[in-house]
Design brief:
This protein is mainly beta. The chain contains one helix and eleven strands; from the N terminus they run βββαββββββββ. Helix content is 9%, strand content 28%.
């Protein structure tokens, strides 16, 4: 019997192939093994906001506290809405453009999903 991956739903090792799908006899879950492999690759970067909600590219977020900006005379005020964010690796894991400030890098712990 060929090596089949465990069921992604219940982790059963008894999954078997049926046509182009794999089937789990314990929980009756059916899945395409190619789709599961793609999902594992896509979920590499997980960024959460101040409330623990998962953020995605293109989301709109709201700043939860005043953030001082080096070289700017005023901080980014709490409640500022930031549209169309882009997630990146690193300490400041959100790239965005803020009206009146321009391009910025923010930490996800100072924003919430809006």
């Amino acid at each position: 019997m060929p090596d089949t991956p465990p069921c992604p739903k219940c982790n059963s090792q008894y999954a078997y192939p049926m046509d182009h799908l794999l089937v789990c006899p314990e929980c009756a879950h059916e899945w395409n093994p190619d789709d599961v492999a793609e999902e594992e690759v896509e979920t590499g970067l997980v960024v959460k906001d101040a409330n623990g909600s998962v953020l995605q590219d293109g989301d709109t977020v709201v700043v939860v506290k005043d953030l001082p900006v080096k070289g700017a005379p005023k901080p980014i005020k709490a409640g500022t809405k930031v549209k169309n964010i882009r997630l990146v690796e690193g300490d400041h894991n959100i790239d965005c453009k803020i009206d009146g400030f321009g391009s910025m890098a923010l930490k996800s712990e100072f924003v919430k999903k809006g």
